[in-house]
Design goal:
12% of the residues lie in helices and 33% in strands. The protein has 147 residues and is mainly beta.
Length: 147
Amino acid sequence: MLSTEWLSAFAPVGVFQREGLWAACGAGVFFQKSPLLWLVTADHVIDSVGPQAVSVLVNQAPGKPVTAVDVGGTLDRHGFTWVRDKTNDLAAAPMPVSPDFQLKAVTPDVCLPLAEVLPSMPCFFVGCPYGLRGFDPQRAAPSSSTA
């Protein structure tokens, strides 16, 4: 089972719909590669909503509500864009940060090089199937399962 600490590195990725409602359409992972914090998600998620519409739910300090960070709009306002790899279905963008955000990030030192991955290794799937973003509306968390 993934620890709560690891799950804090993942967040629902989605879009605002009519009347200010927010809907999950995927999940992303926060990746720290100094000097930037990156949001990494599947490229098909970006295709499904459009690069400027992407936002991510993050937990804030205890007692504060979950908040949606307008990643796509922030990138657009500052002249940045998503780094996209259609072949591997990956997309990454610099993540806006705030001292109020309660999130963790994966770092390169905990990653396994692709050449060392074996077919028999256990793995986890983390995502927001059918737009579900976890079971606690007070916490932004995707669902996870083992394979």
